[in-house]
Each structure stands twice: as C-alpha cells, then as structure tokens.
C-alpha cells in the first residue's frame, strides 16, 4: 500500500511507488560461446540449409546406393551402347551398355570418400605443423615454413603426376583400394601447406592471449597448452578451409581420373565416368552431362557450406 503526500506546491507524490531506478533492467539477449552463436546464425541462413540438404542426400546416396537403384553399375549389354535417356534408363547407357544412372549413384561413394579422407589427412598434417610452428616460433617455425614452401611451390597436377606415376604401376589389373589410397596421398601431400599456414597464423595470435600465459605460468607443458588450450580456439579458420577444400578435392579426384592418373575401372566414380565419355561428347553428350552435373552440384554444395560457416564464424559479421 502506498501513501499519498501533498507537497506545498500542490503536486502529488506517491511514496513507495516504483521509480525508474527501481525498475527491472531491460531484458538482454543471452549470448553463448563462439560455436553456439555460430550455430544459431547458421540456422537462419538459407544457403546453409540448402547446402546441408544437398550434402545429406549425397551422403545417403554414397552410403546406401541400393535405396536409389537396384541395377548393377557394372552390368553390360553391348546392344544398348550409347543409347539416350529413356523410361527404362533415365540417364541412358554408356559405351559398354552400362546404366549411367546406376553408375552415377554408385560413383558418389568413391568421389566422396576420396574428398573426405583427403581433407582429413590435409587438415591433420597441416594443423599439427601449424600449431607447433606457431607456438614455438624461432628456428623451428622457419624450418617448418621453408619445408612447407617446397610442397606449396609444386604445381598440383605436376606433383600428382610424379607421385601417381611413381607409386602406381601402369601394368596389370589395378587394385581399387591401392589406387584410392594413392590419390588421397597425392592430394593431401600437395595441399597440407595451406592448412598449415592458416593454423600457424591462428596459433601465433592465440599464443599471445592471457589464457595461454596463465596456463604456462601454472606449469602446463607445451603439449597440454597446444592441444588443450590453443587447438580449440584455432579450429574455426581451419574448419572453414576444410569445408571448402572438401569440394575442391572431389573435383581434384575427377581431374586426375580424367587425365588417366587417378581412379580407374573397375572403380566407379564420377571422374572415371567423365574420362570414359571424353571421346563421345559430340555423338552422345549424355555420357558426360549427368556425372558432370552431379560433380558440379556436389562441389557447389560444399563451397556454399564453407561460405556460410565462414560468415557465421567471422566476428566482423556480428
């Protein structure tokens, strides 16, 4: 209950009524960490939702191709060679009478596996070297930086030719597992310096932060500081690079296969299909159109995802 007091000038003052100073503070939006804020921002981006939807479909296609087709991708009927799309074969048949739709579905597995594993190897090697170089600095930083420049200076195609022709025998029936491993090795060996430079730059910045100085003052060793304190705070730029690079590595596999250096039959991949169609583009363009279309959509989806993640993790965009 409040008391009403009449002052001398006649103005009424209510004693005990809430004033502006007693009013509750305005509601403030609760802010989380970098990753929670980034996830909240990503969920509102149409480009992120579209790219994730496409990638999920491609992953299901690669893991469970039987859900999309029941046709053997290597089944040959020579009488159907280079026949166009029809109700029986939506994408037509290739030069050996194999169903292009089935081969396109099954080809997603090899292409995505090469892209994912090459990205993991590239990020692991580059991140490890970048963290060590950025934390210790000095002569070790100079040594690792000069070592990475050797691989960075090699043209990608030329370096891949040297690695694949040296380690991959040109005679006999190729081992699919061996060929996939060599393609992953060649891509990661020639690409890790970029990941190292990104991680090194982030590590140099993190090394000057107070939490690293406090951990060092409390007696934490270099291994604990690097992997417990610095690594979680340096992941954002490398994650953006890995997302974009994954699409690029899928395209790199197709490039090497087109040149006859990467995957080869009996492996089914989009790059192998594009390589098989290069001599028949004018007479049977559907041989190239469908695997190339899936390849372009896949690369574009990962690039779109990388752009969305980069914008969400960039503090300047907040």
Automatic annotation (TrEMBL):
InterPro entries: BP-dependent_transpt_permease (IPR050366), MetI-like (IPR000515), MetI-like_sf (IPR035906), OppC_N (IPR025966)
Alphabetical list of Gene3D superfamilies matching this protein: MetI-like
Transmembrane portions of the chain: 48-68, 112-138, 150-167, 179-199, 238-263, 283-309
Membrane topology note: Multi-pass membrane protein
Principal localisation: membrane
Subcellular location: Cell membrane
Region annotation (Disordered) ranges: 1-32
Residue span(s) of domain ABC transmembrane type-1: 108-306
Keywords of this entry: Cell membrane, Membrane, Transmembrane, Transmembrane helix, Transport
Keyword Transit peptide among record annotations: no
Pfam families xref list: BPD_transp_1, OppC_N
Signal peptide boundaries: none
Family indicated by similarity: Belongs to the binding-protein-dependent transport system permease family.
UniProt-recorded name of the protein: ABC transporter permease
